[in-house]
Amino acid sequence: MSFGFDEVVDEIEDAFKVVAQHKGVMLAAASNSGNNHGTAWPARNRGVVCIYAADGYGNPYPRNPTPLLNNPCFSVLGTEVSGHWCHERTAHRSGTSVATAVAAGIVCLVVRYMRDIRTIYLKHLDCVYKPAQYDRRLEQLTAGSGAIIEIFNLMSDRELRGGYHAIKPWKLLDATAAKKSAFSTVTEILEAIDRAR
After folding, report:
1. Residue 95 forms part of a structural domain
2. 121 close to 128: Cβ distance less than 8 angstroms
3. Are the C-beta atoms of 74 and 167 separated by less than 8 Å?
4. Of 16, 20, 28, 57, whose CB is crowded by the most CB atoms within 10 A?
5. Rounded Cα gap, residues 115 and 128, in angstroms
6. In the Cβ-directed half-sphere of 55, how many Cα atoms lie within 13 Å?
7. Mean pLDDT across the stretch 175-182?
């Protein structure tokens, strides 16, 4: 959700209840008001992954609000992102709304990767998961925010960067890394999903 409000919006809150019943992943923009208004709603809502913005080097966007205490604080590329915006041909935009769209793309990439590699993974000699177990975990991947938070943890460094964990998708999904096989990547993701249960 590339938007945010100071107060709860009842109609959107009702929609959250529907999503919660169907167990979906919700990401929301933190805010671009710095400390003037703090973290926006719905990003501060329980069960929503709050997304902050970073530049291409993982440095925090200066208009991020102060990180929420006791919540995962993930920052994603969200400054000077080139793209098609409304009626403009191409423009550069910055902010947590942009970062949230990028974070949603990362989630989709992980889900697609896990679907595409399923058959190859299950044929691997060292595979300990049966097809039904794999499929259950694939469902759990998008059943709430827990598994996505664990996977974002795999994609970010332990140490904070300006108060945020900068997400680096290549840390987990680097196909060129000789030391890392697709099998070990899938195993890491499956174990992350297990931790979130």
Report:
1. yes
2. no
3. yes
4. 28
5. 17
6. 7
7. 64
